[in-house]
Structure formats: C-alpha cells, structure tokens
C-alpha cells in the first residue's frame, strides 16, 4: 500500500528565521517525486517535516485523507534512507534488514522469508551474513534501502542517498532505485541537489529555492520550459543573452529569432541551451570566436566569444579528427524551437505564457 501526500501552506521557522514561508504541494499515490534545489533551499527540512523529525509551525500535512501533523514518526509508516546509510555496524546484513520487522511484532516464521525477498530484490542476498564493514558503499546503501522497504511503508523518503558514492556507482544505484520503486509501486519523496540525478529517476520534480517552490513538472517540461531564470540556470546549462523583442521577433545580436504569438515589446533575456547553438557556414548569422575547448568523450564543449564579448557555451558531438581550435572564427545560428524568452528581470517565461 502507498498513499498520496497533500501539503497545504506549510510553515517552518526557527525563532524568527523562516525556512519555509508558505508551501503547498500534492504528491500522487505511487509517484517518484523529487525535491531539487541548491544547499539551504529547504528541501531536506521539508522531507523531515513529512517524516515527523522536524516540527511543523503552520499548515497541514496529509497522507491520503489523514492529517499527520501531530502523529509520532513511528506511527506514520514511513521508510527512510539517509545519506550516510545509517545501518547498524554490529549487525549482519540480514539482521539489519530484519530489524524493523522484529520491532513490529511480525510472526517469527514470516520474518525470514520477508527479509529474503528484499535481500534478493536488492541483489545482496549473497552478502546476508556479512558485517557492514565488509561491504562497499553501494552495497551498504542497498542494505539501507532493503531495510526501509521490507516493513511495507506507505511512503519512502530518501535524503541524498547517493551523494557519498563515486560517480560510476551513483549511475548504477540511481537506476536500481528507479527500477525497484517502479516494481514496488511505493510513493517516494527523494531529495537531491544533483539535477541530472533528479531528471533520470523522477516522475515529477519540484525545483526549490529559499524555501519556495519555483516550478513543478516532469523532467522534460522543466528542462525545455523553465518558468524563470533561476530554474533555467539550475536545470542543466544555459546561455542567457540580453536582447530586444518587437512583438513576435527577438533580435539576438542582429540575428532575428521569430517566436509565434509572443506579442511582447521591450528588453528580454533569451535562454539558449548549449546544444541549441548550431555552427553554420552562413556568414549572415552571428559571427563569433572560439576561445577554449573541453573534450569530454561523446561531446566537446566550446566556449565562444560573441560580438558583445559575452562568452557562451556550445556543445557539439565529438569528431575523431575535427576539433575546432581556439582562435577560430565561426558563425552561429539558433534552434528557435527550444529557445526560451524571459522578461528582463528573469521572473517570467514569455514563451510559456503564449503556449498556454
């Protein structure tokens, strides 16, 4: 069983210091939902309010129709996975996984088979008699996840569970977490500051900043149509260029970009992802100069100076013997389909406004 989570007007403060001023959020039953944002944005604080580890100064928290504000954490039927694993060093892998079952008065005959199910699901059955000190970081995190899931919680809460793992292991574990969550079908709230991780595993993402939700949407929506400059900068890379807008046409350094039904006049900021700049032989486009190159295997990142002296990042698929050298003069055009246009202060996406 899993539940939907409904948060209404949440308030969290320490004395006069307000961390979360007024936050409302609905998470669907069985959804993999990620709270994403920079350090100090309030995402872990919100997760701990859901768990019952932090007090709630205002608002209402519901699991389905049941309000949980004053419910003890042990009564909320949650599973929790922490950044530092938090498994018991003096217990074997099996004993760690069985711990929650023993504390919930399950029949002794049921405990072994239930633990075995999740040991096998997490691919750590062969390590069941090992002590944690003899496991890798990834194996320890699998133990923590098995222990959290074996008690059949209504909600699984995960606080930056992969941040202590090396890069390759993070990729393996995020896919394992995604696969297991889909198989079990449990409502999952996941906290991370890693945008790529969030996009890879989530059904929906809430981007947070300074205790407020900036945008909620699917990974695709948030990446392609960020609602404001903060989200555009935080999700992936982007180049922001000041431009003039005249109704449906934006003048980017002399290069005209047409946006259907934009209907806006004034200064704007144009957001162009590095992969949406295109090199061209057309000398009527934007003239620029390559200043630096970074080879990253599949792709090469070019740092290019525009006529206004602004440096932009352009990403192109790497070629075996065709690296563009620094100092090379190039011409750029723009894939207008994925361009976003913001008000000069960056607070509003004008493209979303006309699409809706």
UniProtKB/TrEMBL annotation:
GO terms for molecular function: ABC-type transporter activity; ATP binding; ATP hydrolysis activity. Transmembrane segments: none annotated. It holds the Pfam family ABC_tran. It comes from the Bacteria. The keyword Nucleotide-binding applies. Residues 5-235 form the ABC transporter domain. InterPro entries: AAA+_ATPase, ABC_transporter-like_ATP-bd, ABC_transporter-like_CS, ABC_transpr_MalK/UgpC-like, Mo/tungstate-bd_C_term_dom, P-loop_NTPase, Transp-assoc_OB_typ2. PROSITE patterns: ABC_TRANSPORTER_1, ABC_TRANSPORTER_2. Signal peptide: none annotated. One of its GO terms (cellular component) is ATP-binding cassette (ABC) transporter complex, substrate-binding subunit-containing. This is Iron(III) transport system ATP-binding protein. Keywords: ATP-binding, Nucleotide-binding, Transport.
């Amino acid at each position: 069983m899993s539940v939907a989570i409904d948060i209404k007007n949440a308030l969290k403060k320490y004395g006069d210091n307000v961390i979360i001023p007024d936050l409302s959020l609905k998470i669907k039953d069985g959804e993999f939902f990620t709270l994403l944002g920079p350090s100090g944005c309030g995402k872990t604080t919100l997760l701990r309010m859901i768990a019952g580890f932090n007090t709630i100064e205002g608002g209402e928290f519901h699991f389905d129709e049941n309000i949980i504000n004053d419910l003890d954490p042990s009564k909320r039927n949650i599973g929790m996975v922490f950044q530092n694993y938090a498994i018991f060093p003096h217990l074997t892998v099996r004993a760690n996984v069985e711990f929650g079952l023993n504390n919930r008065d399950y029949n002794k005959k049921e405990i072994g088979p239930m633990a075995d199910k999740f040991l096998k699901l997490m691919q750590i059955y062969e390590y069941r008699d090992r002590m944690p000190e003899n496991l890798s970081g990834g194996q320890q995190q699998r133990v923590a996840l098995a222990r959290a899931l074996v008690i059949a919680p209504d909600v699984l809460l995960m606080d930056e569970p992969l941040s202590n793992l090396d890069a390759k292991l993070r990729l393996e574990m995020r896919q394992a977490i995604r696969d297991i969550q889909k198989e079990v079908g449990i409502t999952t709230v996941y906290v991370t500051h890693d945008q790529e991780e969030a996009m890879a595993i989530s059904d929906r993402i809430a981007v947070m900043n300074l205790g407020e939700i900036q945008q909620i949407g699917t990974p695709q929506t948030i990446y392609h149509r960020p609602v404001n400059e903060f989200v555009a900068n935080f999700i992936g890379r982007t180049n922001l260029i000041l431009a003039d807008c005249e109704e449906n046409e934006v003048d980017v350094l002399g290069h005209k970009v047409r946006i259907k039904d934009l209907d806006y006049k004034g200064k704007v900021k144009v957001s162009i992802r590095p992969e949406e700049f295109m090199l061209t032989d057309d000398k009527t486009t934007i003239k620029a100069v390559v200043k630096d190159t970074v080879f990253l295997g599949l792709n090469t990142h070019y740092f290019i100076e525009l006529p206004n002296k602004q440096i932009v990042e352009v990403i192109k698929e790497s070629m075996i013997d065709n690296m563009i050298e620094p100092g090379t003069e190039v011409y750029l055009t723009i894939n207008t389909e994925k361009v976003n246009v913001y008000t000069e202060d960056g607070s509003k996406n004008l493209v979303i406004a006309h699409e809706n």
